[in-house]
């Protein structure tokens, strides 16, 4: 069991630094809205990951094959990210305000959890990633449910703890934020979401053999 934990910790750390829309929105939320808001947002992201892992565990090979035969799912998720990114980019804040936005109230926390969950959930590539991990890691754990639970629990905890440090570091930027810089950050986040959406849409139109998550994870493993 200890070997499984040791193997999961670095994977969780690497997962936390995978560049994607969630990565940048988490840092933005921490820098602008504070530690608690970012923590709540991250919980939503993790809930989506847990759901993906559960789906991947109980469907693995069959679902991976279905996803490869239904590129429309990538296009659907990509369009949502693209529209969301465009909305953020062109959304104008108050130009007369130079103050940092007020911290999120408790009533806003539910919205942040939903935002984190949906932003992660609509990225079908995340589900493909977890499917690939299940397929590669499962046999090495002898497909034992107890060992798999320990492995993925450790991986998620490692991911979450790393995110806490990222949130704390991003929070230090708050003192240097002005109204203009906040608008620039939001536009930057919008551009990142637009790019991620376009990548997903392109993935939906590429031949299946151009993106084989299982083979890529195998290459990383070795």
Automatic annotation (TrEMBL):
It is a multi-pass membrane protein. The keyword tRNA processing does not apply. Keywords: Cell membrane, Membrane, Transmembrane, Transmembrane helix. Its main location: membrane. It is found in: Cell membrane. PANTHER family: ARGININE EXPORTER PROTEIN ARGO, ARGININE EXPORTER PROTEIN ARGO-RELATED. It holds the Pfam family LysE. InterPro entries: LeuE-type. This is LysE family transporter. The chain crosses the membrane at residues 6-27, 39-59, 71-90, 110-136, 148-169, 189-206.
